[in-house]
Structure to design on (571 residues):
């Protein structure tokens, strides 16, 4: 999240009273000299040593006017004198009496006005450093923290919303299951009752027949008409045997409902767990001294650098635009004004294969993932595509936006510069597994950062670098999308034509390389935007696309000569 900084030797710390009291006075750099407000504390310890060294008169105070002498503190040991001297070894103010006493014998005692001037200069430089570098740095840190705060709050709100949605969905699922079970239960109840009713009707008929037979038999037995009685007995047929054969019947036992209610832990496993927030520690480090950075950059800019042409390859295109190489394997891809992307070996520049785009359109830009897989953007089709095993597959399809520049990050994500089809807006989008995880479009004042992104690249410190065709500027933002600086060319060295940035690359030291097509050079700047030097010579002509491998070997795609040149520094 925070850009990396050069290692610098820390500013020496002021010596403590205990160190000075120990008598081991050691001379330090002027930056380490500090005045204490309690002037009397330095000479509160006794001036035990005396000498006859001549006193230093007030007339030697060239930097302080006589009218100002009364403002200097008086020496508690010599009240008639004021602190108009300063001992470099002891790092304490002194008066003429202190000097003549022998306490500072052999020490570098200077006019205190010189020390005031020196300290004023130090304060001015410190103020400049605080104002120009340290304060903006902490502003960036605070801005990053505020952005992280917003992201964390938004993420937790999103998770809460999802938890509520899960609860609603579970209730809906339970309600649906309940309704289905009730429907099934009603249907089973109806079937069971139908069977029971059928059985009941059958045995009801039999029972009625039995009762009717009993009544008939009672009538025979109670008949007083002997003639009829004899006739009924002669015609009587027993039905008992028929009634003794009881028809088949059934018992019905309704099964109990035994619901399986999951335990809370089992239900949590089914629903899913809440991931714990992870924090990534950012190690402490010391900010460099601004003036040292400036001096070093100035020295580097004026130093001599030479580059050696290791080889070149003829691409076969009429216009060569982009080049991309993997960091580990033998992967070098080149594209231009053709539907074909050519795959070359990096060492011998031999053509390995040709990959044709899925739509037959020219690819806008290409990149190679950490796995050595080719990815390209199709501006006309609005798609981002991947090439696996020689087969082209679509990753992302845009509708209102058009993909332009693309690069693979150190975390194997994709940074894509996209532009509205009507050319009104541009932004950088981060994709992780084909999902948008970040969008970068505006600075803190809601001003658009980009007009027409040509190339995009990520530095080792996770800064995002974009070259803008329309504005002819290189814009650098942090990992979280906070503006860091912009580069509009080297103002110290004039070129024939205006700065025209195209291709981008970054090396192992987080230097940023920018191809300046119209001036036939490549700019090398440090991660803070300070110009270092030009990469020129090697007969560069219209340098366009750039890429660099793990050995810091630079590949330059020349637009109109149709060469890809392999260049290495010779320091």
């Amino acid at each position: 999240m925070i850009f990396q900084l050069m290692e610098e030797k820390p500013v020496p710390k002021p010596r403590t009273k205990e160190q000075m009291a120990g008598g081991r006075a050691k001379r330090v750099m002027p930056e380490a000299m500090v005045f204490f407000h309690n002037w009397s504390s330095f000479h509160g310890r006794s001036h035990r040593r005396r000498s006859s060294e001549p006193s230093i008169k007030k007339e030697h105070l060239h930097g302080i006017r006589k009218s100002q002498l009364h403002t200097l503190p008086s020496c508690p040991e010599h009240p008639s004198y004021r602190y108009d001297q300063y001992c470099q070894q002891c790092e304490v103010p002194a008066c003429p009496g202190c000097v003549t006493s022998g306490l500072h014998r052999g020490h570098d005692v200077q006019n205190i006005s010189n020390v005031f001037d020196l300290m004023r200069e130090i304060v001015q430089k410190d103020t400049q450093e605080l104002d120009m570098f340290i304060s903006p740095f902490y502003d960036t840190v605070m801005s990053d923290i505020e952005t992280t705060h917003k992201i964390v709050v938004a993420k937790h709100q999103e998770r809460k919303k999802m938890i509520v949605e899960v609860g609603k969905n579970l209730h809906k699922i339970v309600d649906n299951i309940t309704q289905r079970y009730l429907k099934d239960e009603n249907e089973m109840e109806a079937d069971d009752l139908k069977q029971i009713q059928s059985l009941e009707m059958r045995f009801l008929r039999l029972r009625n027949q039995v009762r009717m037979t009993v009544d008939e038999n009672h009538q025979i037995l109670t008949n007083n008409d002997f003639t009829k009685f004899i006739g009924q007995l002669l015609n009587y047929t027993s039905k008992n045997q028929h009634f003794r054969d009881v028809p088949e019947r059934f018992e019905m036992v309704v099964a109990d409902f035994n619901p399986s209610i999951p335990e809370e832990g089992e239900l949590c496993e089914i629903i899913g767990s809440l991931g714990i927030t992870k924090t990534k520690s950012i190690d402490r480090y010391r900010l460099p001294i601004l003036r040292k950075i400036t001096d070093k950059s100035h020295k580097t800019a004026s130093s001599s650098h030479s580059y050696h042409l290791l080889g070149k390859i003829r691409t076969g295109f009429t216009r060569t635009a982009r080049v991309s190489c993997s960091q580990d394997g033998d992967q070098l891809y080149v594209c231009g004004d053709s539907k074909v992307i050519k795959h070359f070996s990096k060492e011998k520049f031999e053509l390995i294969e040709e990959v044709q785009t899925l739509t037959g359109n020219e690819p806008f830009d290409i990149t190679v993932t950490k796995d050595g897989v080719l990815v390209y953007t199709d501006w006309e089709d609005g798609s981002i595509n991947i090439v696996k095993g020689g087969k082209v597959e679509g990753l992302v399809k845009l509708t209102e936006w058009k993909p332009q520049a693309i690069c693979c990050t150190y975390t194997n994500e994709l940074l894509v510069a996209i532009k509205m089809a009507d050319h009104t807006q541009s932004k950088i989008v981060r994709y992780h597994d084909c999902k948008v995880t970040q969008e970068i479009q505006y600075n803190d004042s809601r001003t658009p950062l980009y007009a027409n992104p040509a190339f995009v690249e990520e530095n080792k410190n996770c800064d995002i670098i974009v070259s803008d065709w329309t504005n002819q500027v290189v814009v650098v933002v942090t990992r979280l999308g906070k503006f860091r600086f912009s580069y509009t060319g080297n103002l110290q060295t004039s070129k024939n034509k205006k700065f025209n940035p195209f291709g981008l690359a970054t090396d192992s030291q987080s230097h940023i390389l920018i191809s300046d097509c119209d001036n036939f050079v490549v700019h090398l700047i440090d991660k803070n935007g300070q110009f270092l030097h030009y990469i020129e010579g090697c007969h560069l002509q219209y340098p366009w696309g750039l890429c660099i491998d793990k050995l810091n070997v630079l590949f330059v795609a020349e637009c109109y000569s149709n060469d890809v040149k392999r260049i290495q520094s010779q320091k």
Summary: The first strand starts at residue 85 and ends at 87.
